[in-house]
Specification:
This protein has 284 residues and is an alpha/beta fold. It is 41% helix and 20% strand. It starts with 19 loop residues before the first helix and ends in a 14-residue tail after the last helix. The structure holds ligand C2E and magnesium ion (3 copies).
């Protein structure tokens, strides 16, 4: 057991002089060790219905606090995880923690849905379905309290196959959400063909809601959601004015720093959102 190994920074592909196979092995080892040592953990960001003030959902977001390098951005290490063939392992960990957290929230009388990010690249086979079923059963969480947020839908190669996998997943009772909608190549065919319950408007549009074109796009997503019976959520709303503009467009379910930053589970239990009408002072 080379204990000093674990504290050395991860060797990334571009700076590695090892063979690809060796590099993959060492990264796998580091990810597994980080999981074992509790360096990887979850934080939770509320989704609030601003028309009622109720926290209707919570998104689980993974964090890696490496003792040598500090916080490593998930956008970065998830990509590394994927390249090391460890996404199913990480996803199982996240599902497990998130489902346990949802059970704990329920125990405190909070019936918020728990969202877990799932890389669409995992839809190639039935592993996610098995993981979801086993995890819900193990912790005894009703399936309707679990939402799977599909990220990287642009990388779905076989849309028809993804439809089949998602239909089976939905039969287990959980909901399917499309993340970051509108950017990348998460295109109209995806929302047209995939069985969906929720659509998350990417923060690129949300941040620019004061722009008439962005507002028109958001408005049409809301209209689409209404017509198709799909819940539309705005992500990345950073301030009171943005939240008010979203509400004016009919978008009431909102997530973002303007509501709450991602927080630890204990803080989530204390979370309460109080409607504060923007005053002249905090209006932008
Ligand atoms: P995402 O799923 O779209 O999550 C939203 C990201 O935006 C999160 O970043 C969140 O902290 C950040 N955010 C929330 N509100 C605001 C806001 O008002 N302003 C700004 N500027 N940012 C805001 P984070 O946690 O760094 O995650 C980045 C991405 O990494 C996620 O984007 C998701 O695609 C991926 N990710 C995170 N956790 C997991 C996971 O457990 N599994 C998988 N497959 N992907 C994950
Ligand atoms: Mg997400
Ligand atoms: Mg998102
Ligand atoms: Mg995003």
């Amino acid at each position: 057991e080379k204990t000093d190994e674990a504290h050395r920074p991860i060797i990334f592909a571009e700076e590695s002089n090892q063979s690809d196979a060796l590099w993959k092995l060492s990264l796998q080892g580091r990810i597994d060790r980080a999981l074992d040592r509790g360096e990887i953990y979850l934080v939770y960001q509320p989704k609030v219905d601003i028309s009622t003030g109720q926290m209707v959902g919570v998104e689980a977001l993974v964090r890696w606090n490496d003792p040598a390098r500090g916080q490593i951005s998930p956008a970065f290490f998830i990509q590394e995880c994927e390249r090391a063939g460890r996404m199913d392992h990480l996803t199982q960990f996240v599902l497990d923690e998130a489902v346990k957290a949802a059970v704990l929230l329920r125990g405190h009388g909070i019936d918020a849905k728990m969202s877990v990010n799932i890389s669409a690249t995992l839809l190639r086979d039935n592993r996610v379905e098995r993981m979801v079923q086993q995890t819900l059963r193990e912790h005894n969480l009703p399936a309707h309290l679990l939402v799977l947020e599909l990220t990287e839908t642009a990388r779905i190669l076989d849309l028809d196959h993804a439809v089949t996998v998602l239909e089976r997943l939905r039969l287990t009772g959980c909901s399917i959400s499309i993340d970051d909608f509108g950017v990348g190549a998460a295109n109209l065919e995806v929302i047209y063909k995939l069985p969906l319950d929720e659509l998350k408007i990417d923060r690129e549009f949300v941040a620019n809601v004061q722009n008439p074109k962005a507002a028109a796009v958001i408005g049409s997503m809301i209209a689409f959601g209404k017509a198709a019976g799909i819940v539309v959520i705005a992500e990345g709303a950073e301030d009171a004015q943005t939240i008010r503009n979203l509400a004016d467009l009919g978008c009431n379910i909102i997530q973002g720093y303007g509501i709450s930053r991602p927080v630890e589970l204990a803080d989530l239990l204390q979370f309460q959102w109080t409607t504060t009408k923007p005053t002249a002072k905090n209006m932008v």
